[in-house]
Design goal:
Length: about 130
């Protein structure tokens, strides 16, 4: 068993599931979406990105790209949320939907990443 692959796979899947936990719910109602879960999704995605930095294969490049996309989307979502609350003074419907939509984009990038990772794992020989 390759411990590096286990740890990487753990964080790739944890990033996707944490992001899904934040994304799931009514996009117009922020009561269904926890700011702490968004923060956790950002942290786990950043850890997954760091784990992808050492891979010099073509697949590693694609995995890193998907991870960077997810990071940018989640940090963008948190930035919109913070700007709406602290800059504008209120979190209106437009900002709420933007936050949830951006986390949905990050979720899609995470799904691509996990799919590629699982496909590579199934393809690899023992």
């Amino acid at each position: 068993m390759n411990v590096q692959k286990v740890i990487s796979g753990f964080f790739f899947i944890l990033a996707m599931t944490t992001n899904f936990g934040f994304f799931y719910g009514d996009p117009a109602n922020l009561d269904f979406h926890s700011k702490y879960e968004l923060f956790a999704a950002i942290i786990v995605n950043l850890i997954a990105t760091i784990l992808k930095l050492g891979d010099k294969t073509q697949l590693g490049s694609v995995l890193l790209a998907t991870s960077l996309v997810a990071d940018i989307q989640l940090i963008g979502a948190a930035s919109v949320w913070a700007f709406a609350v602290y800059g504008l003074g209120e979190l209106n419907l437009e900002a709420t939907v933007a936050v949830i939509s951006m986390s949905g984009g990050a979720l899609l990038a995470n799904i691509v990443s996990v799919t590629l990772f699982v496909g590579d794992t199934l393809k690899s020989k023992r």
